[in-house]
Design a protein that fits this description.
Blueprint (H helix, E strand, L loop, with lengths): L11 H5 L5 H11 L7 H13 L38 H11 L7 H8 L6 H13 L15 H12 L5 H11 L20
Length: 198
């Protein structure tokens, strides 16, 4: 059963059963004349609300205001610079971290999560945490946690773990087949039976 066209979907529950690219969600929001900026799950929630509550105004979009005016893109950073709620991981921050850590520095999700949750800590403490997070790689069983919204990465990891004789190309092939099918939650999750899809 192929995914129906959006115009054929009458409820949020039906809409949520299918996988949608962010670009598709943006286009649906534009056509429905509802806000089309934000994260993928925010767009999805707006569309579901619109389908389930026709004619009703959308709940207001809550914008979190940072309590700091610190300009992460222009400020001169040093080891004593305190992390603020308005932290930005742009070029200024990354260049500072590379100058302190070296070219091997990468701004991975675990590190960014720690920094975002650590206002008041210094960049020196952030560097120490980056090294601690990197040390985990020495454990051969270490696997970084994949964010729930990164379904493709989680699917590929689970597929390859379960099918050691298969390749990344195989995993992507089965991902493409799987995402064309409905689910109860809208999340694409690897199952052992996926290798039987055609």
């Amino acid at each position: 059963m192929p995914r129906p066209d959006f115009s054929e979907i009458a409820s949020g529950k039906e809409f949520n059963r299918w996988y949608w690219l962010k670009e598709e969600l943006v286009e649906i929001c534009k056509q429905a004349q509802i806000p089309y900026t934000g994260r993928k799950f925010e767009l999805r929630d707006r569309i579901i609300f619109m389908l389930d509550h026709p004619g009703q105004p959308l709940p207001p979009i809550k914008k979190e205001k940072a309590s700091s005016n610190f300009n992460w893109s222009k400020a001169k950073l040093d080891l004593d610079t305190k992390i603020t709620e308005s932290i930005s991981f742009g070029p200024n921050f990354r260049n500072f971290m590379k100058s302190e850590i070296g070219p091997k520095f990468s701004c991975h999700g675990d590190f960014m999560d720690w920094v975002k949750s650590s206002p008041g800590k210094t960049l020196e403490e952030a560097i120490l945490m980056w090294h601690a997070l990197e040390d985990r790689k020495k454990n051969p069983n270490f696997k970084r946690t994949i964010a729930k919204n990164n379904m493709l990465a989680q699917y590929v990891r689970d597929f390859l773990k379960d099918n050691t004789d298969k390749t990344l190309k195989d995993a992507l092939y089965f991902w493409k087949l799987k995402k064309q099918r409905p689910t109860e939650t809208g999340y694409i999750i690897y199952e052992k039976t996926d290798v039987e899809l055609s």
